[in-house]
Amino acid sequence: MTKLQFEFRTYARPFAKPLQTRYGLWEVREGILIRFRDREGRVGYGEIAPLPWFGTETLAQAWNFCNQLPLELEPFAIAEIPLNLPACQFGLESAFTALRSDAQPVTLPIQRYAALLPTGEAALTAWRSLWQQGHRTFKWKIGVKDLFTEMAWLDQLAQTLPSEAQLRLDANGSLTVETAQAWLQTCDRLSCIEYLEQPLPADALPEMLEFSYQFKTPIALDESVATLAQLQACYDQGWRGVFVIKPAIAGFPSALQRFCQTYAVDAVFSSIFGTAIARQQGLRLAASLSNPNRAVGYGTAHWFKSPDSPNFDALWQNL
Fold it and tell me: Residues of the signal sequence (predicted)?
């Protein structure tokens, strides 16, 4: 195949309200859009959207890598992107795949998207408008306030949610063994809890495996399985619970596809708050690899000030 014209540019999208997580306040989503063009005029877009607190490269490292690439790129060079740049692996291989494909956009009914609620007490009312839009699965981040306050909020939320609603609790690895046990005991008595996500830090897999045997509430891994190497390691160590997979930081999409098809894991594909480019490429993978009985974690559009255009040419020009 002939060389590809390679272009890239940064973007910054402010959140409508800062997102509070255990990692602090997140006010602006920054990343890199890339574009390939071949001699026939075909175009493929990709997105590099690192999450360094999940163990990926930083935005600066991704930018430096892109700057080192030639503006006329041989396709085989994509396969040589090193393992310590998983967001770059995703972005460039996705763009190359898009260049060669005329696949139609993936669309899912809104009830197939899990909507992210605001952190803290605001979740007690924020779910209502999202429910009216059609969402039936909600995600709420915990571990940012004290245990008893958050548990009181959870009780209120569980009492007001409709019986068809499902709630995912995401601790982002912030709990201790003792507080995780307290959360799981509470979750076990509530019918609305789908799973508790990443209760302990990424290196605490033995303890989370033990929890999966002790409690009926399913546990999902997220930070523990950020990259393909971590996915494989956790599977090899016996994890058979839920895998929350963020394809945009996992590495090469082709390798991720092989992993999921080989092991048929209980996967929930999830957003990294990227643009429509990364979301669409993630949804295309999710369509065949994510557990169809679980909502995908892409209900995040309402977190941004400006709507996300499905027109990738317009995104390239305007972001």
Answer: none
